[in-house]
Amino acid sequence: MSAIETSLKQQNPGFVCRTFAAIAGRYDLANHLLSGGFDFLWRAKAARLIAQARPARVLDLATGSGDLARALGKHCPDAQIVGADFCLPMLQVARKKSVPSLVQADGLRLPFRDRSFDALTVAFGLRNMAAWDGALREMHRVLRPGGMLLVMDFSLPEFLPLRAIYRRYLHHVLPAFAAAVTGNKEAYEYLGESIESFPRGAEMRTLIEGCGFSGFQARPLCLGVACIYTARRVENRG
Question: What's the pTM?
Answer without folding.
Answer: 0.89
